[in-house]
């Protein structure tokens, strides 16, 4: 396959015991030496267990060993997004995503692509496109073909359209893509181009805050149904599931169950549970950690309630607290299943108990 290197290019075609009892005695992760013993998560689950990663993380032998031991699927945290791949001159760079793909291949892990079209990114090369050389819609197609085609045969799936629904649930977000190609048509085209580039990859619509905002969730579900009705080759839906330790577990369960009712694959695509973002329902770190462990358990339970054929993967947005985007936001946060040193927390044990 000949792949374009720029916008102007042309392309051809095991058993966990007593885990929940530990939740109440969890120490804050910053000082945690929790006596929690959990077999490798991927050995317990009947579905792929994913984690987000950056290329630089793979240079840390302790972390890369933890990833290889615990996970069966990798999602590039940001280095497959346009912000990394598209240069200002319209050229593409693939060094970091190639490194992640190589690590996945060497370690027998699945690769999941994230993300092709995101309202929040409009590279200067697209904004300043010279349409005397190639039309906007052709550059759009060339980009999707270049990225998906590069990992054809390795990437098992892609977040094709990311965060398309307005935060208040009133329709869809405005973006460069919607303005140039149509509010709905740009999404259909993205799915079509991704399918052309890799007919075997599973294609997803992905969004966030579906557990917090029922109106947004309803709009997301309607969008997925409309894409299906329009013949877009959508295979699945992803719920990022960035939640806080005081999240209503009922909404979490409802979200996963309602996504399952579409009959598509379901991906819990970016799971973490923030302590710092909890709004004061729990007053101390101990209770926050207990709430976190309970939500890990309930998320696993809700995912396991789906038909096995719809459980695409459950992806943690990182394994160690030290690498979490939430810890970069607030150094006191500890949202992930393993502490800064790679030791499993009560949250990991609670999740493992529900999937074993």
Walk me through the structure:
The protein is of the alpha/beta class and 356 residues long. Helices cover 38% and strands 15% of the residues. The protein contains 14 helices and 9 strands. It has an 8-stranded parallel barrel, surrounded by 5 helices. Strand 8 (265-274), helix 12 (285-304) and strand 9 form a beta-alpha-beta unit. Helix 7 (136-150) packs across helix 9 (185-197), helix 11 packs parallel to helix 12 and helix 12 (285-304) packs parallel to helix 14. The longest helix has 20 residues, at 285-304. The termini are far apart. Mean pLDDT is 91; it is low at 10-34.
What is the rounded Rg? 20 Å
Structural class: alpha/beta
Q: Please give the number of β-strands.
A: 9
Secondary structure: helix percent: 25-40%
The H/E string reads: HHEHEHHEHHEHHEHEEHEHEHH
The average pLDDT value, as a whole number, equals: 91
* Sheet with the most strands, sense and barrel status: 8 strands, parallel, barrel
The poorly predicted ranges are 10-34
- How much strand? 15-25%
């Amino acid at each position: 396959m000949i792949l374009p290197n720029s916008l102007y290019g042309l392309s051809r075609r095991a058993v966990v015991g007593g885990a929940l009892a530990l939740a109440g005695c969890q120490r804050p992760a910053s000082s945690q030496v929790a006596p929690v013993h959990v077999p490798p998560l991927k050995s317990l689950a009947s579905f792929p267990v994913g984690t987000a990663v950056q290329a630089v993380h793979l240079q840390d032998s302790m972390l890369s060993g933890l990833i290889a031991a615990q996970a069966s699927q990798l999602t590039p945290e940001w280095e497959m997004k346009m912000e990394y791949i598209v240069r200002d001159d319209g050229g593409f760079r693939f060094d970091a995503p190639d490194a992640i793909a190589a690590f996945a291949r060497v370690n027998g892990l699945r690769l999941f692509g994230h993300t092709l079209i995101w309202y929040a990114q409009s590279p200067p090369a697209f904004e300043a496109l010279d349409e005397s050389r190639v039309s906007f819609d052709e550059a759009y197609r060339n980009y999707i073909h270049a990225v998906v085609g590069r990992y054809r045969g390795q990437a098992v799936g892609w977040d094709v359209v990311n965060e398309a629904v307005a935060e208040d649930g009133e329709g869809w977000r405005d973006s460069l893509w919607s303005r140039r190609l149509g509010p709905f048509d740009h999404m259909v085209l993205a799915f079509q181009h991704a399918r052309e580039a890799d007919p075997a990859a599973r294609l997803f619509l992905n969004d966030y805050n579906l557990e917090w905002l029922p109106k947004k969730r309803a709009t997301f579900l309607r969008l997925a149904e409309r894409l299906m009705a329009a013949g877009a080759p959508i295979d699945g839906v992803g719920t990022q599931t960035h939640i806080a330790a005081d999240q209503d577990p009922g909404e979490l369960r409802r979200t996963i169950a309602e996504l399952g009712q579409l009959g598509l694959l379901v991906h819990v695509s970016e799971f973490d549970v923030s302590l710092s973002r909890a709004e004061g329902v729990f007053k101390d770190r101990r209770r926050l950690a207990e709430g976190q462990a309970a939500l890990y358990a309930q998320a696993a339970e809700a995912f396991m309630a789906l038909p096995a054929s719809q459980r695409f993967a459950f992806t943690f947005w990182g394994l160690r607290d030290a690498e979490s985007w939430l810890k970069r936001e607030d150094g006191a946060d500890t949202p992930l299943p393993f502490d800064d040193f790679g030791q499993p927390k009560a949250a990991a044990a609670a999740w493992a108990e529900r999937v074993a």
